[in-house]
Design goal:
38% helix; seven-stranded mixed beta sheet; alpha/beta; 377 residues; 9% strand
Length: 377
């Protein structure tokens, strides 16, 4: 129901021109809306469903990662900056409505850009605390939205690792001490990477890995569930850095997947980089969610597979014996009472179910069960 309402409050997506403005891809305006729905908006909805599911799994298992999402420029009533759906807002609304244990949420937004979408949505909501670290000189320059930020760290152009990591560690610790959150939403944009054409910061690949480590360590030390979305990043090497960061978190036991390591080992690749999951649009462009959308817009897409750093792992290879039963239960939980996955009939002809095809990696800090979540439409 949340996405259904959101679709009708934000933008009339049946007009390709509106989608072109939001995604900032002018040629989209000239495409038949049927193509826009299937090739542009449908993948966005998959990522949005992944973020909502990640929030639910984090509360159940301690942590979750959606390899995608993080559309932090979209608010409840408008999109922009490549962001068509407010997945962060929707995931938090879902937790407030459906998970009794959640009454306070901490957003840690470390994308290079200000997260003006969720800031507008939670402007006067004391249940949500926002820490935002961003380049002061780039999009979106939303002065009104800044009023919602509880800890605002504005960076100069081309800030480097030492200063950046010092500020991140100091303010993540400060935010967690100042606000007792029930769950953390971590927007882990990689557009802070040096040479990123939009982020205009100078953080190394190792600096990004260390940043993610800081956030997960702090959350672990406080015993706070955390779910991560990957947000912006506009270079091909971004995908490899995300993969390396996840592997580093696993190596440090900040995320644990005991079942994935002890069950169905013959069906899984030996290399732990099989952390990539299926159900997200596959693209030869690599990089972040945005690169995948637009790099693969006019190429053939196979929803059944995805590669983190171009992995060729298939669904069957990633399946554990009881995967189907667990997925069925998760879908039942999410769709109970029609609360979340009511069809989003934007085009009134080919509605997509929010939970269809979404992906998340989920686990627990005390080594309970975890598995990759996928479902076919």
């Amino acid at each position: 129901m949340f996405l259904y309402i959101h679709c009708h409050r934000t933008h009339p997506f049946q007009w390709s021109m509106n989608v072109a403005k939001i995604t900032e891809v002018p040629p989209v305006a000239f495409l038949p809306n049927m193509i826009v729905q299937s090739r542009v908006l449908r993948p966005f909805r998959f990522h949005t469903g992944g973020t909502v599911l990640a929030g639910k799994l984090a509360m159940e298992r301690g942590w979750a990662i959606n390899i995608g999402g993080g559309f932090h420029h979209c608010s409840a009533d408008r999109g922009g900056g490549f962001c068509a759906y407010a997945d962060i807002t929707l995931s938090i609304k879902f937790l407030f409505e459906k998970v009794e244990a959640v009454s306070k949420v901490l957003i840690i937004d470390l994308d290079a850009h200000q997260g003006n979408g969720h800031e507008r949505d939670f402007m006067d909501d004391d249940r949500v605390y926002i820490l935002d670290v961003y380049n002061r000189g780039i999009y979106p320059h939303d002065g009104f939205a800044k009023r919602a930020i509880k800890r605002k760290i504005e960076l100069d152009y081309f800030t480097e690792d030492k200063e950046y990591l010092r500020l991140v560690e100091r303010h993540v610790e400060g935010a967690m001490n100042e606000f007792e959150a029930d769950v953390i939403v971590y927007n882990a944009g990689t557009d802070i990477l040096e040479d990123d054409p939009l982020g205009l910061l100078s953080i190394s690949a190792q600096g990004i890995i260390h940043r993610d480590e800081i956030v997960f360590k702090k959350a672990r030390s406080k015993g706070i569930p955390i779910f991560m979305v990957t947000s912006g990043g506009y270079q091909k090497r971004t995908a490899r850095i995300i993969a390396d960061s996840i592997l580093n978190l696993k190596k440090l036991k900040l995320i644990e997947c005991e079942e994935a390591e002890t069950s169905g080992s013959s069906a899984r690749p030996a290399e732990p980089s099989a952390a990539s999951t299926s159900g997200v649009v596959k693209s030869k462009s690599g990089g972040s969610v945005f690169g995948k959308f637009f790099g693969g817009l006019f190429t053939k897409t196979d929803d059944s597979t995805v590669g983190l750093a171009e992995s060729k792992t298939t669904k069957s290879e990633m399946t554990v014996p009881t995967e189907e039963k667990r997925q069925h239960k998760i879908e039942e939980d999410i769709t109970r009472d029609g609360s979340l996955t009511k069809q989003c009939d934007i085009d009134n002809e080919h509605p997509d179910n929010l939970s269809s095809g979404v992906s998340a990696i989920a686990g627990t800090n005390n080594a309970a069960q975890c598995n990759s979540i996928t479902s076919e439409k």
